C-alpha cells in the first residue's frame, strides 16, 4: 500500500508553535507579540552568538549576566575587553567573545547603536556570518530569511529524506528551508523549527506522533527517521601534548598571565603553559618551566577541542616568590571566578589545587570547548 504524503506547510508548524513554544529569556513569544511587544535586536543577536555550539541551559545564566552588566549594545561596546572575556569564560569558542565585542563596537560607532535590519547589512558586521545574519534578520526584523542551525538541519533532512551527507548537503537543505519560510511571521517560523528540533525531532527517539509535520515527513514514511541527517565519517582527532605550570605563593595566590589576542584561546587568561597548538606538540617537562621554583608533578588533564585532543602534564610549585611578575599577575585562589579562565585552564588549576573550583563548575556544558 502506497502512502500519500501531505505537502509540508509553514501554517501547520506555526499553529504548533503558538501552542507549544518554549519560553526563553531572549524570545518574544506569540502571546507577548499579541500584546505589542517587539523583539530587541541586541538581545536576539547576543543570544544567537551565545547559542552557537552551546546548549540553551548553559546560555541562560550567561545571557542574564551579560544583560545585567551591559544592557545595551552601546554598553557592551564601551566595556573593557578583559571584562567581556572574563564574563564569557566557560562558554567556549572564545573567538565568539572577541567578535562579539568588535561587532558591538561597530554597531555603536558606525550605526548609531542600531543594528542593520537586513541580512546583507548584518553580514557586513564583524563576526556575523550567514547563520547569524539570517537569524537576526528574521527574528528581530521579520525578514523572510532562511535560518538553518543544527536543529533545523535535522528537521529538514528528515522531512525530505535527504540522503546526501553533511556538510555537503547544507545548500540543498537551505534551499528547502527558504521555500518553506513564509513572508508572514518568518521569525516565528525560524524559532518554531528550532523548537521542533530541540523538543520533538530529537537526534534519538524523536516523538513523531506529536510532530506537526508527521503527515508530510518522508523519513517517517520510510520508518527510519533516526538515520537522518546523514553525516560524513568523522576523522580521528590528533592528540597533542603540552604542560601547564601552576605556581602558588605564601599568600594563597596563583600566578596568571594573558594569552596573545590572536589564535586559540586568544585574549583569555592562563597559567603558564608550553607552545602547543592544534598542529604541534608543546614541551611537557620541567625544563619548560616559566621561572625557577620547586616544581613537582601534579598529574595530567585531557581536554577536547574542536579539531584535536590536548593532554597537559601539570606541574605545581608552592611558596613561590612574587618579586618578579614575569609578565603576569597574582590572583587569589579563592576568587578565580573573576578571571577569564577557559575550561582547559580551570582543569589544569583544579588538578594542582583540588579545591580551587569547589563552588564553581569546571564545565558549563558537555561537549567541545575551544
UniProtKB/TrEMBL annotation:
Family: Belongs to the Nth/MutY family.
Cofactors: [4Fe-4S] cluster
EC numbers, comma separated: 3.2.2.31
Catalysed reactions listed for this entry: Hydrolyzes free adenine bases from 7,8-dihydro-8-oxoguanine:adenine mismatched double-stranded DNA, leaving an apurinic site
Protein name: Adenine DNA glycosylase
GO molecular function, one term: 4 iron, 4 sulfur cluster binding
Keyword Hydrolase belongs to the record: yes
Organism domain of life: Bacteria
Role: Adenine glycosylase active on G-A mispairs. MutY also corrects error-prone DNA synthesis past GO lesions which are due to the oxidatively damaged form of guanine: 7,8-dihydro-8-oxoguanine (8-oxo-dGTP).
InterPro entries: A/G_AdeGlyc_MutY, DNA_glycosylase, HhH-GPD_domain, HhH_base_excis_C, MIG/MutY, MutY_C, NUDIX_hydrolase-like_dom_sf
Keywords from the UniProt entry: 4Fe-4S, DNA damage, DNA repair, Glycosidase, Hydrolase, Iron, Iron-sulfur, Metal-binding
